[in-house]
Amino acid sequence: MENINEDGDENMRDINLKTDLCIVGGGLSGLCAAIAAARNGIKVVIIQDRPVLGGNASSEIRMWVCGAHGLNNKETGIIEEIELENYYRNQTLSYSIWDSVLIEKAMLEDNITLMLNCTCNDVMMQDNSIKQVKAWQMTTESFVTVEAKQFADCSGDGILASLTGAEYRRGRESRHEYDESIAPDKADHKTMGMSCLFQARELDRSVPFIKPEWAYTFETDEDLPFRGHLLPETNYWWIELGGDKDEINDTEKLREELQKIVFGVWDHIKNKGAHGADNWALDFVGCLPGKRESRRYVGDHIITQKDIQNGGKFKDIVAYGGWSMDDHFPEGFNYNKGYPTIFHEAPTPYGIPYRALYSKNIDNLYCAGRNISATHSAMSSTRVMATCSLMGQAVGTAAAIAIRNKLTPRGVYENKIEVLQQKLMQDDCYLPGLKQEYSNITSQAAYKVENEDVNILIDGYERPIGENDHGWYGDINQTIQIDFSNEESIKEIRIVFDSDLNRGMKGRQSPYHKNMPCYYPKDMDFAAPPKTLVKSFTIQTLVDQGQYVEIIHKVNNYQRLVKIPINIKTKSLRFIPTETWGEEQVHIFSLTVKN
Length: 595
Prior knowledge:
8-stranded mixed sheet, FAD/NAD(P)-binding domain, alpha+beta, 8-stranded antiparallel sheet, 11 helices, about 30% strand
């Protein structure tokens, strides 16, 4: 894949890469896109301008991974796999280990080439398609050129939109353009701002804080109106600026202002009143602002406020959202008329269409993340990272289908949208309103526990939906038997366990929100895999009349989706769960086979 030209200055070189899919941006949407594409058999290059992956969720910014509200609406697929890996490996919720979890997911895929500290700055076009992107890798003093069949812009700022001539929007639409009640009367270039977050750590003793001379001073609580700042309380997302500026070109000036505010707010918490902070020390201050909004692509469909409020009933659904339309005031920290954001109600979940995930006028360009084809009002909901991760997985999967079938992104919509939807569901992506189709040998098999049918395991739904659980509850060591009418060749066994999609929503007091912490109190709980997961299990096959032998013995499972490749011929299989991570009963949503 790689060709390095050593000619010329010994400190400057050319790196030329040729691949199937080039992804610009290594946040959670770009990472999930890359993993999905690689696992579906195509070569991927990620161009990421930072030394770590994760974007707003990385150790450089530390925004928690938010997604759909409501019971049983947690996002699954690759983002769930990543979070469960983190719970298993990162018991103290260290951001360094979290970074390692993210980069490991890319490094373990043979089809992924990572280009970190690499900034995209030019493209070469061929008619209405991108032929190459060009970048500069700062750490190696190298010019990088990537030629690819398909490209995906997961950069957040939508850098490829400005370089390629792709149609895009910036700012807020007027209320009348799409009949959006939460939009302003007149269109403008204002956006939501960016934040520099900080974290604190509780110690056993009182800790002083000396404010830098250049930081701002906030003498009284009245200097921070409508902003709660008792410890421990929040991740201080409201330290936000830039929505009324140029959210791209003014970033460095805004970062300086944000850091003056951060240190001033911490000085206020520590030294300007009773805030319960005597034993708290400043542990981290972000030097890279986390952005909420900038360019947004124009795709074959632009998602609007009405689309969201109507539940996103799209035939080409490939992801879903469920965060409220959380529309921050452009003035950010300087807004003093009330709370700095408005949470406009949104149904949860609502569908996101595939047609919003590729460019309308650039033939081989996908987009995923906060830069998708949506109005400002709709994007105030779709922008959160768990939702963006689902879009990334959809784009990576679609790109693989497109390349295998020599299609454009639009061609996938026109010819293979049902194939894409079924593949996403096979990879544990929930698509509201759709039912998963299983192999013929699965759908025709007899599933029994102690001679009672348990066809709930193959009903096509793999999480609780409304009043229906769609799962099987049983005892540890209880046997699920799968009988086939004839001897069948089995190539894969697929299981979907219960990873507690409502974890963190049951009133449990915890020092971390979602997947990683906002702050570090002394008595912080250790992270661990959800108790509902099956930790160990055995799979047996029939070898003689009534005699079964063990072929799989898994002893340390901590994932929700488990795919086990095998190569056997059998008329009957048995699945026996032998241990959970803490629950007394076993809960399984699906147990299927493929030939």
